[in-house]
Design goal:
single chain, about 240 residues, alpha/beta, 6-stranded mixed β-sheet, 8 helices, about 40% helix, globular
Length: about 240
């Protein structure tokens, strides 16, 4: 079976997962009740798989889907303000073929990159429990195994950095002491290179903690470390 087919099988496993009762209840309640601005939409309300190029060289990793973002659209970082910031930056880098991502069916394509999250269900207050993280982690381990071209992981926030370290440890790649997260931090773990970036949350972008220039610089660095061909990250 090809890696692309195996990724498809992994996606199929993810979207039917019910391992975490608290998260199942939360994601389905949010999908049923909705918010006023999306009251006429049908929410996805299930775990949100990763997506992108099966031949990816770069994995872009977040925390979890947003309650009214990925939990609504069915695609991670899609339909929320964090995604607006992220995909605009990926478009400027030539990794995404468009700057705006509004739905899973909008045709957006990624070049040499895969986007995923440590947790696949939207958690209350954006805070999965440690047990919920551990139950979800095998999906990230599986993605890393199947995305054989990935050697660079861009971690959006400290939670993603920690999740990447845990997934790599589960795959047999450990670093002692564990490298610390920071914006633009870099660390080698086994055959992988981790790059840290502040999460493109509204809180970080509205306060100036993360500016477009800062995000562009980190994305460009990660693309360079991943050896993405120039045609794939040219504006």
């Amino acid at each position: 079976m090809s890696a692309a087919n195996e990724l498809g099988d992994l996606v199929a496993q993810i979207v039917i997962c019910r391992r975490c009762p608290r998260l199942v209840d939360w994601r389905e309640t949010v999908a049923a009740e909705r918010v006023a601005r999306h009251r006429d939409e049908v929410y996805w309300g299930r775990p949100v798989p990763g997506f992108g190029d099966p031949a990816a060289r770069l994995l872009i990793l977040g925390l979890a889907p947003a309650a009214h973002g990925g939990n609504r659209t069915g695609r991670v970082f899609t339909g929320d303000r964090s995604g607006d910031v992220l995909f605009a930056a990926l478009h400027r880098a030539g990794i995404a073929d468009r700057a705006v991502s509004v739905s899973a069916g909008d045709g957006l394509q990624l070049r040499a990159a895969w986007v995923a999250a440590v947790n696949r269900c939207a958690p209350p207050d954006n805070k999965p429990t440690p047990d919920e993280r551990e139950r979800c982690l095998p999906y990230l381990v599986g993605e890393l195994r199947l995305l054989s071209g990935v050697r660079t992981i861009l971690c959006l926030g400290a939670y993603a950095w920690d999740g990447a370290l845990r997934a790599l440890a589960a795959a047999g790649h450990r670093s002692s002491p564990a490298p610390r997260f920071g914006h633009a931090a870099e660390a080698s773990v086994g055959p992988y290179l981790l790059v840290g970036c502040y999460h493109p949350s509204q809180q970080n972008t509205s306060t100036g903690r993360l500016t477009p220039a800062m995000l562009d610089a980190v994305v460009a660095r990660a693309a360079s470390l991943a050896a993405i061909p120039a045609a794939s990250h040219r504006p």
